[in-house]
Amino acid sequence: MSNDTLQVRRIGIDTYHENVAYLNRECGVYRAEGFQALSKVLISTNGSKVLAVLNVVDDSSIVQPGELGLSEQAFSRLSVAEGSLVTVNHAEPPKSMDAVRRKINGERLDQDDFNNITNDIVETRYSKMEMAAFLVATGQNNLDRDELFFLTRAMLQSGDRMNWHEALVADKHCIGGIPGNRTSMLVVPIVAAHGMLIPKTSSRAITSPAGTADTMELLAEVNLTPEQLHEIVGKERGCLAWGGTAKLAPVDDMLISVERPLGIDSQGQMVASILSKKLAAGSTHLLIDIPVGPTAKVRHMNQALALRKLFEFVGDRLNIHLEVMITDGRQPIGRGIGPVLEARDIMQVLKNDPDAPFDLRQKSLQLAGRIIEFDPDVRGGQGYAIARDILDSGRALAKMDALIRAQGAKVIDLHPGNLCHEVVADCDGVVISIDNFQMATIARLAGAPMMKKAGVDLLKKMGDPVKKGDVLYRIYAEFPADFKFAQDLANSNNGYTLGSDEQIIKSLIAF
């Protein structure tokens, strides 16, 4: 081994969308090159290269002086055998940072600027600090409509695109913020049973108690390759899969990994994220659900209308047929919050169980009906009745069963966790509000979504009368520590407000 080469060592650390390298402080290359911790380095071997953030190690049991440690992400990207020889050099700063600095100073960026920025991010030339600078510079209302279009198109072009070879490929997306709002798992089988193509690739939960992929995973396999997706969709006209196995708008995933810890969620970045992913997934017709409520992500009607205009402007320029539904986001949808409880609600609706949550059924039928009206053979206003007939007849349940078999059926157990705490009303009254954010937080503290059986089961919804001592909801958990955290939060603020009928905030929403 020459003095300027190092042996690769795989370090079992998941650094999630960031390449990280580890050098021993006593390493000759480290001393000779004058590397600094958190600087960017270029790692090369036999034509394979990867950029990584450098961490300096003082423990030789982790990395010895003649070794270069690589995180799981970096090791996978470099794609060489452990023990291979590599060289390490200073990385050239990304040229597109000049555009980020111009944006920080208030200048307007063009399409080439956004192309260069997204390309450098995908090529891992940006550190998380540099990505944070870009997100802050373009956050809030710092992008005009054209810049938002440029960013969306650049994100779309950062990865692969799926082609279903059909003129009408339907999809739906909710902007989030409403616990239990698992409508996709009802919309997809209804629409697919109608015969329309609806390949639904969904994310896992990041800040919510469950994502569609987390819940569907209780019923069927969701980690499917693009080849498997094409086979399943070709046969069943739909799927409910995790989107992480396909390289669709990968820059979006990388930006999200920085956005979430910082709590950055601007409207412009949301629009670019959603539309780039949907277009990359091959969608031609898209329905966007924007829930509005006092504790939803969008809290005022004027904000929802402005967001709708942004979606429509960018969608029109990217040639996707896009419609927006502004829906009631005053409280959670359904009863269950958390994977197993949400899966239970979904199966109750599909089976036309009299105990099925009515609001989840109705909202899903409204969304499915609007998507069915994308079909040129369906007259406007007929979609809801068609969706209802498909659900009532059992065809939606049969389609869901077919999707589960095609994706790989799991042994289904929809019983919640063994630890249960009942939260009761401390006075008589009527439920006048339920805090979406608080209920989601309690469910997450209970262990959802990582612990599939954890969550919150609502027994009372807005408008329901209660007596002192009545159970408002139950908290379920699998581990005592999670259980205590959730109990403590519920005891300090249970998320419910009781009052009288006239105090209920009336919905301004009409489907």
From TrEMBL:
GO biological process assignments: pyrimidine nucleobase metabolic process; pyrimidine nucleoside metabolic process
Domain Pyrimidine nucleoside phosphorylase C-terminal: 430-497
InterPro entries registered for this protein in UniProt: Glycosyl_Trfase_fam3, Glycosyl_Trfase_fam3_N_dom, Glycosyl_Trfase_fam3_N_dom_sf, Nuc_phospho_transferase, PYNP-like_C_sf, PYNP_C, Pyrmidine_PPase_CS, Thym_Pase_Put
Pfam families noted in UniProt: Glycos_trans_3N (PF02885), Glycos_transf_3 (PF00591), PYNP_C (PF07831)
Superkingdom of source: Bacteria
GO terms under cellular component: cytosol
Enzyme class, spelled out: transferase
HAMAP family in the cross-refs: Thymid_phosp_2 (MF_00703)
Official protein name in the record: Putative thymidine phosphorylase
Species per Swiss-Prot/TrEMBL record: Methylobacter tundripaludum
